[in-house]
Specification:
By secondary structure, this protein is mostly helical. It is 74% helix and 4% strand.
């Protein structure tokens, strides 16, 4: 079985986070489709730029003893949680 490259894993994580973000904002938080479609362009640009331009090499770079690929994935997930929290608690 072939192993996935780190970039492919991060791209799949970005896609899952964007899909989860849209589902949560539309169905759980109740954001209107007009606002969601406008903001989706901004959020997808942020995620894509992050996935493309952050240098990630599995097992090569470590920050505070953690792999840089793990930290990049963690930042993507935390960004998704922060966006959902912003919409959930915004007036």
């Amino acid at each position: 079985m072939a192993r996935l490259d780190v970039r492919v894993k991060l791209s799949l994580l970005v896609a899952a986070c964007l899909l989860g973000l849209v589902i949560l904002l539309k169905n759980v938080v109740g954001v209107s489709p007009e606002v969601l479609s406008r903001d989706f362009i901004i959020y997808s640009s942020i995620y894509i730029a992050f996935a493309l331009f952050v240098p990630v090499q599995e097992g090569k770079q470590e920050v505070m003893g953690l792999d840089s690929a793990f930290l990049s994935g963690l930042v993507i997930v935390l960004t998704t949680v922060a966006i959902v929290a912003f919409y959930a608690f915004a007036p």
